[in-house]
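Researcher: I'm preparing a figure for a lab meeting and need a structural model of a single chain. I don't have an experimental structure, so a prediction will have to do for now. The sequence is pasted below. Please return the structure as C-alpha cells so I can convert it later.
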Amino acid sequence: MLRTALPEIITDTLPGPKAQALIDRRAQAVPAAIRCVYPVAIARGEGAMLEDLDGNRFLDWIGGVGVLNIGYSHPEVIDAVKAQAEQYFHGMFNIVTHEGYVALAEKLAQLAPVRGTAKKVFFANSGAEADENAVKIARAYTGRPNLITFSGAFHGRTLLTMTLTAKKAYTTGLGPLATGVYRAQFPYLYRSPDGLSEEEVFAACLQNLQDVFEEGTPADQVAALILEPLQGEGGFLPAPLPWVKALRKVCDDHGILLIADEVQSGFCRTGRMFASEYWQEAGAAPDILTAAKSIAAGLPISAIVARSEIMDAVPAGTIGGTYCGNPLACAAALKTIELMERDDLAARSCQIGQIVTARCAQWQTKFPLLGDVRGLGAMIGLEFVKDPVTKAPNGELVSALVQECARHGLLIENAGRWGQVVRFLAPLTITDRQLHCGLDILENALKTCTQ
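Model: Understood. Here is the structure written out cell by cell.
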C-alpha cells in the first residue's frame, strides 16, 4: 500500500521516461514563469507518499506547500466529496444558500482565535484572495486607507498581496504596485546584530514601526497590520510572542486592526489548530484571521474570520464571488477539520516536531553549515550558511540538497530571502517509519553535498 510505503526509485535516471514526456509537454504548453525544479510527474498519492508515472515512489515533505496536512487522498474526504458531488457541484452563495457553507462558517467561527464572542466567516478561493479580502474588511471597518506589512512577509501574488509581500522577485516587471502599503521590520533573531539581546531586538523593531508612523504613514491612517504567526517564504520564522504582544498594544492604542495570515500555518501545522492560538493565550488575539491551504485537503477554498461588528461594517456587494464557498470544497473542509480533531493532529504535529528537531540538533554538531533550526510544531525551518560565524546564507547548498534528496526519493523545498532554508511541511499523517527514513535521506544528502 502506497500510504505506508517507503521511498523507492526504480528508474535509472530521474525523471523517468514517462515523467520526462509529460514534463516536455508541460514546457510547450505552460508558461516558463511557473517554475518547477523537481523531476516528478505524479500518478497518484496517498498519505505522505506519491508515485510518479514511472512507478518511482517519493516521500513528500512539501505537501503542496502546506496544503496536505492530512495527506494525499484521505479516504474519508474522498467519500465526503463524492457524497456532495451526487447532490450538486455548485451553488453560488449570492444566489442560493447551501448547508456546507453555513456549517463550515459556524465551525470556523467556533475555532478561530480572533477577538470577540460573536464571529462571522466568509469564503474565497485562495490564500491571496483571503488576505486581500481581509484588507478590504479592515479598510471598511476603520475608514482608513493604509496598511503595514513586515520584512520577510509573503501574502500572495495578486496586485495587492504581491505589494504586501517582501521578496520583490515576485513582482519583477509587474509594477506599478498598489499604494498605501508600508513595511516595518520583523525580528529575525538568528540574523540580529551581534551582542543584542532578544529584548533589544524587539525594542529596535518597535522603534522601526514608530519610524514608519512618523516617516511613512501616520498611525491614524493605518487600517491594519498584517502578520504571519510563522513566516513561510521568509524562512520559517516564528513571530516572537513578546513582540506580538507589543504589536497588539500598538494596534489597540491607535485603533489599528491586527490581521493574522494563517494561510500556511493553520490547521494543526504548529501544534494548535491555528498558530494564533498562542497569541490568544498570551492576551494578543488578532482581529481578523485568514486561512487556506490545508483547510480542505487540496480543494481550493480559503476563509476570512472576524468578529461580527467588523464583518458587518462591509458595504453590501463588495465581498464574495462566483466560486467562493464551493459546495465540494466545503464538504472536504468539514470532513478535514473533523479528522484533525478526531485524530488530534495538533498533538501529532508536536510529536513530529520533537522528532525532527532532536535529529537536527545532532546534525548541528556534525554539520556546522546548519546554522539554525526553528519553528513551531511540525512547521520547521533549517537555515544553512556558508560560515557559522559570518552566517553568510547558503542557498547553493540548499539547492544541491533539493536535487540530491529527490534522487533518493525525498521531496524538500527551500525558503528564505536567499533560498537558504529547508522547510519541513510533511503531512501530519506521516508514519514514524517514513519520518525516520526521510531524515536518513536528508542526513545522507548533507554528507554528500558538504564533502
